[in-house]
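=== Structure Prediction Worksheet ===
Name of assembly: unnamed complex
Input type: mixed (protein and possibly other molecules)
Chain count: two
Listed entries:
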Amino acid sequence: MRDLEKSFGDVHVLRGVNFDVAPGSIFALLGSNGAGKTTLVKILSTLLAHDRGTADVNGFDVASQAGEVRESMSLTGQFAAVDQILTGRENLVLVAKLRHLDNPGAIADSLLERFSLTDAASRAASTYSGGMRRRLDIAMSLISGPPVIFLDETTTGLDPEARLEVWRTIRDLARGGTTVLLTTQYLDEAEQLADRIAILHDGRIFANGTLSELKALLPPARVEYVEKQPSLKEIFLAITGQGRSRDTKETS
Amino acid sequence: MTALVADTRTLTGRSLRHLLRSPDTIVTTAVMPIAFMLLFVYVFGGAITTGTDSYVEYLLSGILLITIASGVSYTAYRLFLDVSGGIFERLRSMPITRASVLWAHVLTSLVSNLVSLAVVMIVAFAMGFRSGADVIAWLAVVGILVLFTVALTWLAVVAGLLAKTQDGAIAFSFPLIFLPFISSAFVPTATMPGPVRWFAENQPVTAIVNTVRGLLAQEPVGGDIWVALAWCAAILAGAVVAAMAAYRRRTG
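=== Predicted Assembly ===
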């Protein structure tokens, strides 16, 4: 991506964005709300035209080779794009058919299995929990095994357990050779998952590097003694599941 | 071209599943025209002089148009849900023929409206409607109703693409449902005061109503059928152009 610019009317959302993502790596784009993350992902997934600069996905230019770009990538947006009325299996079969693949039923079944949705396969997606819906959404994106996948704030609005589940999925993807570009506003998510992190602020990339490179930008660490309290996340996970029965929660 | 047919078939299959899982939409579509038919035949009908023996035979063609006008609003509603949920964006980021997304909704609308029309016809038969029209005349009636349905459905596509709210998506159909009342559908236009009569005689519904009524009553339809076809073609062409513009506007 080189010198990418985009305005909506007078609002200059992207003011010259440059970065590269290495194949098979996880790249996190970090930024607060309104930083331009979603705009950037929409440009990369051919949903939005940019004003200036160039962007390639899998070697194809997003403006002049949109068809090839669409063959090369899959997008999972902020709101789970599943058909609520269809069942989980029907959703997967639909995408497999639209990708013109042979044997859509078998593809659907293997993805249901991989995402632990086999039991819910014949239920309407509207009855799924938020985490299940997001899993189905990602499963739909993986049909046809695209080399590049964009995850736009995929864990926003999920409970901590569902987030961990999605994280596991993302790690598996990268291990399988898929290039992952994810946007997030959660710092810990970028820290946990990404090989490289870029900070998008005010329409520009302010920093871009590995976690340790970014840490090196700050003044050296000072040693402080802090009483270690369990974090709310640890408490939450300890109480809800993770080996403990539900009775403990009720009596506590 | 084959991709367009295959994608349209896949997506039409999806919308038809939606239809099957909410058959109440077909019933709801048919209920209002049937209520109008009962009201006009058994309450007002006795006081209306039309110059025909049976009032139900006089008003049926107008009732059929009201059925279509209320039926197409569900297309706007379903399209609005696709656009406001993530499905529309997911489809646009995939390598599928763009036109198939809209055509699937149009074909589904055609199927659901034909079923609703059949339900209304059955009730009309039960109320004493009879026609000695031959197969050619019936085919002509079906052809005009199909053309009218497709034309109004493309208007619904415009509404569904541009709407900001669910209510906004279906509001476009209210004037369409009202239009037959200011036409020759329920009473002959001869009794109307000057300007109203002029409007009634020169708006599309009157030509279409007169054509359908004439065909079913085995009367010559002369110039009316060409005026009716011209109106349908003009509405269709205008609506398709508007729908393309709305699509471009919606997708930036």
